[in-house]
Predict the structure.
Amino acid sequence: MIVCYAQGGGLGHLTRIRAYLHTVHADRPATVLTTSPFAADPRVLGPHRLLRFSGPIGPVLRDLRPETLVVDAFPAGIDGELAVLPAGIVTVHLARLLRWDAYRPLSGLSRFEQTWTLEELDPEHQAHLARRSAALAPLSLIDPAPPEPAGIADGTWLIPHAGPATEIEELVSYARECAALEGRRPALVLASPHRPPGLPADVEHLDVYPVWPLFASAERVVSAAGFNVVRQMRPWRAKHRMLPFPRRWDDQFTRAARARREITGSGGGREDR
């Protein structure tokens, strides 16, 4: 049995775990441990089993007796609850950018048979994982093939975001600002699990998952700088406008800065703020 720890309140951990299971395990069914409310949507986990848990995770793992434990993002868990991993199972870590100076006190003594680095890490974070991993290697994730996506009109500026209404409001304002700088008045489409209260009437709402199949046809994509959207937008980096948000552990600001350097380094597109 494969058990995946995907703790966190957002959608990103689940999207990343789903892509990992598709890329490495050919969608072999797994059990996903999470408290994310987005896991209730059957489109998100697909063939994989959801197991919600509360309290200490140790008894849950003892009951499940997994062959493999996959720990997403946080090597010692979101609150340090995986500082020491149970013996006798294969342990795998999926590493992405963290605010390492903030997270380091929780980093613990966990050891991994395999750590996959999914993007460039802070050097101290990378060094820590090298010390705690039998094998350390980069991995490029591939998302599962989507169902037929909803269509969007030519010239649409797409705003994909599953975060709170306050952040959606900021992204809509940022999209309008970017459009004004280009002398444009495009149609705006928000792709989000729920239509937030107060969304302007001229912004269309789509509840679509996955949203990445719409990226190719959108004229611009205006988003935060979470791991998945930045990864999925790599083929269309020049039309990506990023507004990073502060997070407890994720470092969206460093990720956005790196993505913008890809644009200016390749000579394509404009660099947004």
Observations:
- Residues 267-273 have pLDDT under 50 and may be disordered.
- Helices lie at 12-25, 42-45, 58-64, 100-103, 123-132, 165-181, 227-232, 252-266.
